[in-house]
Amino acid sequence: MRPSHQARTHRAASPWLFLLPGLAVIAVFDLYPFLTTVWHSFTDARTLLPGHWVGLRNFQDMLHDDQFWTALRNSTLYVALVVPCTVLLPLLLALLVQPRIRFVGFFRAAFYTPVLASVVVVALIWNWMLDDRGLVNGILHALGAGPVPFLGDGWLLLFSAMALTVWKGLGYYMVIYLAALANVPRELHEAASVDGAGAVRRFLSVTVPSVRSTMVLVGALSSVAAFKVFSEVFLMAGPTGGPAGADTTLVMLVERTGTGLSGRVGYASALSLVVFVITLALMLLVLRAGRGEDAP
Amino acid sequence: MTRVWGRVLRYVVLLAVLVITVGPFLWQLSTSLKGRTEDIYTFPPRLLPRHPTLGNYKGVADIVPVWSYALNSLTVAVANVVTNLVGASLAGYALARLRFRGRGAATLAFVLALLVPLESIVIAQLTLMRQLGLNNTLIAVVLPGCVGAMNVLLMRDAFGHLPYETEEAAVIDGAGVWQRFARISLPSVKGTLAVVAVFSFMGSWDDFLWPLIVLSDSSKFTLTVGLNYLHGTFSSNQRLVAAGTVIAVAPLVVMFACLQRYFFRGVAEGSVKG
Amino acid sequence: MPISRGTRSHKAVGAALPLFLAAAALTACGGNADGGSSADGKVAGDISFQTWNLRANYKDYFNGLIARFEKEYPDTKVRWIDQPADHYADKLSADAAGGTLPDVVNVSPDLAYPLAKAGVLVNLDKEPASTKYKDEYTPEAWQANEMPGLNGGYAFPWYLNTGPLFYNRALFAQAGLDPDKPPRTYDELFADANTMARHSGGRVATLAATPAIEDFGRYGVRLMNADATEFTYNEPRGVELLTRYKQLYDNGALDAQALTNGPEESGQKFLEQKVAMNPGSAHDLSNFKENAPTLYKNLGIADAPNNTGHPNMYVMGLGINNGSRHKPAAIAFAYFVTDRQNQESVAHKVAIFPSTRGSLDEPYWTKDDGTDEGRVRVAAAKILKGAVNYTPVVMSDEMKTVLQNQVALALQGRKSPKQALDDAVARGDELLKQG
């Protein structure tokens, strides 16, 4: 393109040319297929059998489905407990490995390993460690504490799965923070240091404001991910969601009702739609909360 | 004095986190190196194999054509990295730096795409691929994820952090929007580009469900799908499974170990100094 | 994959897929109604044959089998596809909905039922080309693929499996039980389990899994009404079984993690010698030998108890795609794979059992050759005579989960066994009606 000598900085069509590949892909492969889900949520379709229009019946059924309320509670708890950890801990970790000290490259890379491995592998290892006679209980036993039923108790299972989510996300969000921290002018920190500002105050008054928009982004991404949690709980608590299904999450319920050769596609689609609407609301909430000082 | 203690404390914390993050993988590695005669289920568990052997790795290669599956995975992953770098940086730039009508709607479209529960649309995607005549090809494996909404939003965040002054100077010099994108903005977000590259590579490498659904021909399988053959119908050998997981993770670790200098340097220095 | 020790936990990532199938299925079925050719024609054409996770270890066997078939029918060509362990049902539903189901597919009865109901599989009792082979299989095996309300069998019976109860002799001895006298009845089983728990101070459980539908069946509980439209496992006998399990759980005789253990975890606990008994099958032996040599030295083998005179078995079959363009060739091939000679030859290679009439009377399955494998093989073959597949084919995974969760509530003491089973039956019936 020839340099433009006009006052405006780009031609009217340019933005859309930039957006074309990305928009085309998500429109064709994400948004359009999702419309089918919306349609199915008003039918009683089965995996291999076509459905009939049933209006709002799937949504009414949900209100009387105990499993739905359990799942809604679990997914909400997941957001409430996991998101603060995934926003804060990776930031602290990023600060820990930000300075150029010896071996820091090694540590950064090592902390990233859990992100590299697939969640299936990771969950297998965790299951082994948290077993009644596993490594963690072995250590507890040596310290004189009785075995903790991490994998037998409904609540402990849910908390263990949360810990796994946080653990696996540490390196992932750490990297996003490192990229953002690189934008914080070093002089700011050093100036604060000369002032004798304590580490905590420095963190609150310099670091946090300067990575605020990234914290909001991480918060938004991890709330969506936490609300849609599936693999960690599925793998640790089992496909039926722990003792008596007490650990079922919403997406697990979608999987349970909608898959297999006799899946209730209509009902599962309605559940998907609920998940979609709640995550959308969550995301907007987090973004709005962070908007205040977001502008550069 | 406090400086020294601060440093010691920092290393202590670093080592603790190291044990927590890497320890579990060493266990898997250890299991994969244990020979046939060694009981892998004793209690208390033994971390160091008594007679380390590479036999299990050979066993995996006998069952699964590891090399050709790895090549398929590599092809898909590299293609995924390239398309994501190009597509996400273009879209991210437009969303962050260009003013135009419909920008809000376009941003929303990417946010919505991020929220779509992927599991619920796999079959519709398969039907699409069949209509396009692409099912059972590696192209079909790449297409749905070739521009990830998440990556677009990450690039938007990165471009949004760039100071406007540099670009304004270029506008005055008469640089067009494509030149400003390619010559000024893009080099300034190397860090996030590296992040997007690694994320897309991993996402593609670890993906299981979609390649399984869209590929029928076992010669086209990717590594994660192919390694699933290790869970035998008639018996599962934990040592082989462990060796298989090591084979699946090792290329990522090696790649990451080689690239991590550039990756983190990019992450730390890529952005324009404030 | 009913034979496997479950790869449940690997089902893992991303599962909720076939949400779009219904619309696609509509078109697929429409096409199938008149798309398939008659089954009486000439055995010719290219057909595809899909197995479930057999390529890794039995590649040469299948290539040889296919070569022999193609030699016998020179106008045919068979393309063999093998699917990995996980997500097989999802792969099947995607293909069934999209009209790309292979001509001959490896299915278990619970997979065959929804496919048959959607009109995707050939009713073998209605095709002269296939009915003529019916008598070559054992009646129990053929019946396992007969679908309630669909008038006929929908898959050629292929291999069968069943298994004894394995037990850990060392753990039995430690608890003061005679390792040479394993429990033979439910009464003995429950009594031994309680003794074991008492002696080990609750550290060693005897069983690792909560009762599933087939356990109710073996206990003699009537699972469904005659036309398979309502569940009946909440009858007094069912409540009795659950009450006894509740006592086991309270005594520590049922593993503390039983409420969440799947087959894979249960097997694992037995391997790790944390649990004293576990149901298994002949091919577990090599697994024990290789992965847990200390356990293998102490391995005992007992018959799984039942109150009905009919042990439980699992059945694998081969279904024919109703939309196949070369049905005669597909049927000929499915029969070829499952005929007596080929079933017996594959069963000599793998520790599974043929479903063809008379096969189990062969010396290979009746004469103990002195090895552990031989012992288990002969014991299992004996069990298989008269064994039935207890799991009702109409019981979807979701209905099984309902039962499992209600059982868990009863074991936790949050509901009485009676209440739990009543609730499970009510919910199961509700789901059944929607289907």
Automatic annotation (TrEMBL), chain A:
Pfam families: BPD_transp_1 (PF00528). SUPFAM superfamilies: MalF N-terminal region-like (SSF160964), MetI-like (SSF161098). Keywords: Cell membrane, Membrane, Transmembrane, Transmembrane helix, Transport. It comes from the Bacteria. Gene3D superfamilies: MetI-like. It is found in: Cell membrane. The chain crosses the membrane at residues 12-35, 77-97, 109-129, 155-180, 265-287. Belongs to the binding-protein-dependent transport system permease family. PANTHER family: ABC TRANSPORTER PERMEASE PROTEIN, LACTOSE TRANSPORT SYSTEM PERMEASE PROTEIN LACF. This is Sugar ABC transporter permease. It comes from Streptantibioticus rubrisoli. The lineage of its organism: Bacteria, Bacillati, Actinomycetota, Actinomycetes, Kitasatosporales.
UniProtKB/TrEMBL annotation, chain B:
It comes from the Bacteria. Residues 70-258 form the ABC transmembrane type-1 domain. CDD domains: TM_PBP2. The keyword Transmembrane helix applies. SUPFAM superfamilies: MetI-like. Keywords: Cell membrane, Membrane, Transmembrane, Transmembrane helix, Transport. The chain crosses the membrane at residues 12-29, 74-96, 108-128, 134-154, 242-264. The keyword Mitochondrion does not apply. It is a multi-pass membrane protein. It is found in: Cell membrane. Coiled coil: none annotated. Belongs to the binding-protein-dependent transport system permease family. This is Carbohydrate ABC transporter permease. It comes from Streptantibioticus rubrisoli.
Automatic annotation (TrEMBL), chain C:
The keyword Membrane does not apply. Residues 1-30 form the signal peptide. It holds the Pfam family SBP_bac_1. It comes from the Bacteria. InterPro entries: SBP. Keywords: Signal, Transport. SUPFAM superfamilies: Periplasmic binding protein-like II. Belongs to the bacterial solute-binding protein 1 family. This is Sugar ABC transporter substrate-binding protein. It comes from Streptantibioticus rubrisoli. The lineage of its organism: Bacteria, Bacillati, Actinomycetota, Actinomycetes, Kitasatosporales.
